[in-house]
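FORM 7B: Structural annotation worksheet

SECTION A. Query
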Amino acid sequence: MPFALLKDRALISVSGPDAEHFLQNILTTDLDTLAAGEAKPGALLTPQGKILFDFLISRAGDIGFRLECRADIADDFLRRLMLYRLRAKAEIAKQNQVFVTVAWDGDSNASLSDSAGADSTTLADSRFRNVAVGRVYGSAAEDGDPGAWQALRIANGIAESGSDYQLGDAFPHDVLLDETGGVGFRKGCYVGQEVVSRMQHRGTARRRVLIASADGSLPASGTELTVAGRPVGALGSVSGKTGLAIARIDRVKAALDAGEKIMAGDVAVTLAIPAWAKFTFPQDAVSAEEA
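SECTION B. Predicted structure
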């Protein structure tokens, strides 16, 4: 079974009688729909609706939660949570010496649980639709194959901050949190909720995660995508001939309609919507002047 130790991840615990109410009021994820045994994506936003921190959240017992995030932002994330806590009865702490491992197969997560140690917790990563992916929190002895993990994430259109976009520069819709269960549109208010709800109801999301492919190797992450010299987006994670991109789907549609090449540096690329996604290219693409 393929697996990978993710050395760049960390866990923050939030527990106590007010933990769920506290988190429900500030995070994009609807905790009412978070089942035991699963990890769902989410974000803490700026008041302007941009992603300040991204994470995977899971339940830890009856009154606790785990927030898995990038290790390099964990301390800042913890401080921001402490700032919002006010008088809520919730304990917030970073968990030390806990490793994050991902493992995947094509059938079920049962075998993933069997392979985890007795001191480990295995959760289903709900972002993936076509393959069973488990996140194992606990001890780790081997690195596994991080390259294969990145290739799997790219193939499934799963974007993460740092690798695919910068925090403070993307809305939840840009990185498909609206389609992976990372935004609760039926829950009450949370930080940045008005902007996100407006984008949802007006259908104004124009930047989206797309899967990029080429006949040869793609250039490095961060390479600008252009059409006739005009920017349409940028590459994120890259694995050989495939990669993730965040691009303006209206400008991509205009290029497709006009038969113009989409370039990543000097490499021609094809951009496709992830197979599981519900969004489509807009019917009315922007004109060259608007692009």
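SECTION C. Observations
The first helix runs from residue 19 to 24. Helices lie at 19-24, 74-85, 110-115, 146-155, 193-202, 249-258.

SECTION D. Sign-off
Analyst initials: ____
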